[in-house]
Amino acid sequence: MGLFGAKPTSDKTFRVNLSEDEWRKRLTPAQFAVLRKHDTERPWTSPLNKVKGAGVFKCAGCAWPLFSARDKFESGTGWPSFTRPLNGKAVGTAVDRSLFMVRTEVHCANCGGHLGHVFPDGPPPTGQRYCMNGAAMVFQPA
User: Fold this and answer.
1) Domains of the chain by range and CATH?
2) How far apart are CA 127 and CA 138, in angstroms?
3) Which of 68, 33, 30 is nearest to 51 (CA)?
4) Looking at residues 20-41, what average pLDDT do you find?
5) Which of 35, 70, 82, 92: disulfide with 113, CB 3.0–4.6 Å?
6) CA distance 13 to 120
7) Which residues have a Cβ under 8 Å from the Cβ of 88 and sit 6 or more positions away?
8) CA dihedral sign of residues 90, 94, 96, 102
9) What Cα–Cα distance (Å) separates residue 112 from each residue in 23, 60, 101, 127?
């Protein structure tokens, strides 16, 4: 269980499956806490908040392409936010019943790493706000 009581994404098998020890070797402590233990980084702490250039945000665990920089927007929440995933195969979702509420958790479709949550209060054209942990992603400039 993560810091806020979130349970692991699912028992689904993903294309990238590593042991906990292998994930610990591959990831920084912050990345491991977010991606594998469903923790949440503190708001306003991610350098990815300031990224404005063209490029792609990828999973920090497996380098799977997740979001386009052109779909990034300033949500005022302190976390990188996007209106939509890169494509229909970039992310998956699951019900998160932690913190005495029901939310939609977003995870990497390739490795199952926890990315954040999606909310129905984003800007047009989708009305969605994919509120992601910066520690869960890396940015590849175009």
Assistant:
1) 20-141 (2.170.150.20)
2) 25
3) 68
4) 96
5) 35
6) 28
7) none
8) positive
9) 12, 12, 22, 25
Average pLDDT over residues 34-49: 96
Residue 119, pLDDT > 60, answer yes
Distance CA 130, CA 127 (A): 10
5 torsion bin: left (phi>0), alpha (psi -120 to 50), beta (else): left
Looking at the annotation, which residues are catalytic? 131
Query: What pTM did the predictor assign?
Result: 0.89
State the first-to-last Cα distance of the chain, in angstroms, to the nearest integer. Answer: 36
Q: Are 121 and 28 in contact, with CB atoms under 8 Å apart?
A: no
Q: Which two tokens stand for residue 107?
A: 């995870």
